[in-house]
Amino acid sequence: MRGSEASREVIRHVAIAGNPNCGKSTIFNALTGLRQKVGNYPGVTVEKKTGRFFGSHGEPMELLDLPGSYSLQVRSPDEAVARDVLLGRLPGTPRPDVIICVVDASNLERNLYLVAQMLELQIPVVVALNMVDLAEENGVIIDLMALREKLGVPVIPTVGTKGGGFIELRQAVSRSPLPLPPICAQMPIVFERETMSLAKLLPVAPEVARGEALLLLTLHEDALEAVVDHDPAIIEATRLAQRRLVAGGIDPLSAPVDARYDWIGQVCRAALHQGGGADGISISDRLDGWLTDRVWGWVAFLGVMSLMFFCIFTVAQVPMEWIREATIWLSQLVVNTLPESDLRGLLTDGVIAGVGGVVIFLPQILILYFFLGILEDTGYIARAAFIMDRLMSRVGLHGKSFIPMLSSFACAIPGIMATRTIENRKDRLVTILVAPLMSCSARLPVYALMIAVLLPVASAFEKAGILLGMYVLGIGAAFVMAWLFKKTLLRGETPMLLLEMPPYRAPAWKTIALRMWERAGLFLRRAGTVILALSILLWALATFPKPSGSSTTPGEALSQSFAGQMGHAIEPLIAPLGYDWKIGIGLIGSFAAREVFVGTMSIVYSVEDQGEAGVAALRETMAAERRPNGRPVFTPLVCLGLMVFYVLAMQCISTIAIVRRETNSWRWPLFQLGYMTSLAWVAAWVVYQGGRLLGFE
Amino acid sequence: MSEEVDVQMSGLGIGEKGRVLGFDLAPEFRSRLLEMGLTIGVEFTVVRFAPLGDPMEIKVRGYHLSLRKKEASGVRVTRL
Questions:
Q1: At B55, which CATH number?
Q2: What is the radius of gyration, based on Cα positions, of chain A?
Q3: Residues 15-54 of B with CB under 8 A from A
């Protein structure tokens, strides 16, 4: 298998771990540069990020980036990944030979907790004491010798953003043989006895067994079965051991934690000296005084969010327009070069349109990741979650769901990609499921057309009012569905908010640029291929079978194609909503992308012109369209219902592709398609039939 | 030793200091708080409350941590 072949070339497997916000990514990027690869662990949504780097004598090594965490304790399948990697229990991921534990020098006490757990696993550890420059500025003085002595492992001061300490880091990691860490935190004797007996039962190497037994014993009973795939005998033995401990007055959940913090306390007393002003107000505190103030906090928050939204919505239009023009130019080139044929059609309407449809998302994705990078690095994102949490928790969500949902107003694709910042799997899924309900910019052409047909002589004020109504409908639906999902399908306790508010820091520009590059590439490779395939499929459906006669209009040709036949076929389904088969074709075309509706309607109603004149002509043609019984097709009620349908329906293969990628399965995107389509149908039905009942037709 | 008055963490005001005495929380919440350093006996300071009133931010073990008042009400503390 490819994985094991690649690992044979590599001399050593190194893992890098650390708390969130400790600068681990910067060190990872500095060591591996562009030699990185992102994959998935089987069965979970956690990303597997690896990279190549060279030891101090040029030996090839593989660096595995473990997800940032505060502890090795496991409460969900996603959290189990780090633990399983370190215990060597994941096939395809070799057990690391050495762990680089990145520690934030300004925050030594809490950061050492993860280190303590790492030491218990009896794998060689190298501590990277990161951001020492910032620590010095804050008056934190660390006695390196004392720290090394107390920890018993190499401690390398690093400045990740400037490359400081990397030579020593490489040396420490390249040493042969690597020394095992001495056992440091002393557990209560009774606890230690239970650990050792449990360790004997585990089917793993003895060095690892104690570490694994410790992790087992500190798991709450209910979680044991959920996250441990041991045989029932071991689970039972663990339960019994826990009960014995409780009977003896020791709480298995807190005893090890206390023991570790006791040890950390000893280490810090010896090695950590807070300079003057320990309780003083730092610059960070002063900034927070403004940024989380009851009044100014909102001003700042709305300012930042508006700026981000504005950039994604408006600034992105400039490069997006370039891409649109490039697509048209390229199509034109093909049209001029090749004779009329199916191949030409495939190239222009299938391939070029498909690729153009993928690439056009790049500006918005890059801009979003740029902002996200700055927000995360500076630490502001924690403040944003802090401010919004009360609203989000009302529907069972997390404060961190806010930014993905906001971005979805521009486009759900980068919004859904941004849900990676949400650790809790269920919350992340709920956010992904409701994000497309926030009316994205692609719906605007449809709204505009429908409003123009619906209210030809309405004032701009009335039109804006309806538009706003559509947006409000989307937001309302998103919150209601989120609440519903949290109560039923993805039932889980409202996630606990336990959010670290890191001190404000300058952003690491290189890391941000690298992440933008990485995300864009991932999008193009994974989602792009799916979108392209589906675009070609839709082109084929709309082209074949060809009409028999030679003088058919494009509208008639479309009607005889598979897409047209599907439009006729679904007519009974959409008739209760007031739609005919022509609208049906529009809906099917919109499956690819919402804005396709306008173009499809132009073809169906045989309106040749593009651009502004074309829309006006289309509007008049549609307004004049009559049913067999003489009644107009596009009554105000039908238009309103159609808009409501578009607010709620999932009509974007790009979104489906990205949800597939982010959730690592087809189950959720298909479910999303199903629930949103049903929701749209029901709502449009209610609007249409309800309106008719009330006499609006 | 002076009497330790048992109050909820959520009941403390801005700037007040406290020491953790115990927890009235479900195990999974409790273990998270413990891991983040909120162990029995640790001292902390209440820094602020969010603009909407919830969550609250405390300073503990040298760093800032926010948690909801709902969970904070499950942490028994004594004022210092």
A1: 2.30.30.90
A2: 29
A3: 27-37, 39-40, 42, 47-48, 50-54
Closest-approach residue (CA) in chain B for A496: B29
ipTM, 2 dp: 0.93
Handedness of CA A352, A353, A357, A358 (dihedral sign): negative
Residue A545 binned pLDDT confidence (cut-offs 50, 70, 90): confident
Residue B44 located in a structural domain: yes
d(CA A615, CA A602): 8
The whole-angstrom distance between B2's CA and the closest CA on chain A is 24
Measured between CA atoms, how close is B3 to chain A, in angstroms? 24
Tokens of residue A59, six digits: 């030996």
- Other Cβ atoms closer than 10 A to A371: 23
3-state secondary structure chain B: CCCCCCEEHHHCCCCCEEEEEEECCCHHHHHHHHHCCCCCCCEEEEEEECCCCCCEEEEECCEEEEECHHHHCCEEEEEC
Instruction: Show the beta-strand stretches assigned E in A435-581.
Output: 498-500
B37: which chain A residues are within 8 Å (Cβ-Cβ)?
Answer: 109-110, 113, 261
Side-by-side strand order, sheet with B7-8: A498-500, B63-67, B56-60, B43-49, B17-23, B75-79, B7-8
Q: Alpha helices, DSSP H only, in A152-253?
A: 166-174, 189-201, 206-217, 221-227, 232-247
**What distance in Å separates the CA atoms of residue A541 and residue A563, rounded to the nearest whole number?**
5
Task: Please list every residue in chain B whose beta carbon sits closer than 8 Å to the beta carbon of residue A285.
Answer: 47
Q: Please report whether residue B41 resides in a domain.
A: yes
Q: Count, in order, helices (H) and strands (E) of chain A.
A: 35, 10
Q: How far apart are CA A318 and CA A316, in angstroms?
A: 5
Domain residue ranges of chain A, discontinuous segments joined by +: 2-174, 189-251
- What residues pair up with A12 in beta bridges, in sequence order? A61
Q: What is the DSSP letter of A493?
A: P
Cα(A38)–Cα(A46) distance, integer angstroms: 10
Quote the CA–CA distance of A149 and A271 in Å, as a whole number: 9
Overall domain count for chain B = 1
Three-state DSSP class for residue A39: strand
DSSP class per residue in A542-602? HH-SPPSSSS--HHHHHHHSHHHHHHHHTHHHHGGGT--HHHHHHHHHHTTBTTHHHHHHH
- What is the predicted pLDDT for the residue at A229? 65
Residue A294 has pLDDT above 60, yes or no: yes
Question: How many whole angstroms separate alpha carbon A117 and alpha carbon A245?
Answer: 21
* Cα–Cα distance measured from residue A201 to residue A238, given in angstroms and rounded to the nearest whole number: 10
Residue listed under structure tokens 């559509």: A470
Q: Tell me whether residues B34 and A500 touch, CB distance under 8 A.
A: no
A551: number of Cβ within 10 Å? 6
Range of the domain at B64: 7-73
Ramachandran angles phi, psi of A625, nearest 5°: -65, 135
| CATH number for the domain formed by residue range(s) A2-174 | 3.40.50.300
Give the pLDDT band of residue A115 (cuts 50, 70, 90).
very high
Q: Which of B32, B37, B39 shows the shortest C-beta gap to A496?
A: B32
Decide: A410 and A360 in contact? Cβ < 8 Å.
no
Residue with tokens 């503990």: B60
Q: Is there a contact between A86 and A101 (Cβ–Cβ < 8 Å)?
A: no
Percent of residues, chain A, with pLDDT higher than 90: 21
Average pLDDT, stretch A322-349?
Answer: 84
Contact B54 A108 (CB under 8 A): no
Cα maximum dimension of chain B: 39
Residue B47 falls inside a structural domain: yes
* φ, ψ of residue A332 in degrees (nearest 5): -60, -40
Q: Tell me how many degrees the CA angle A402-A284-A18 measures, rounded to the nearest 5.
A: 70
- Alpha-carbon distance B22 to nearest alpha carbon in chain A (angstroms): 11
In a domain, residue B46? The reply is: yes
- Rounded to whole angstroms, the Cα distance separating A407 from A267 reads 44
Please state the separation of Cα A369 from the chain's center in Å: 11
Pairing of strands A36-40, A47-54: antiparallel
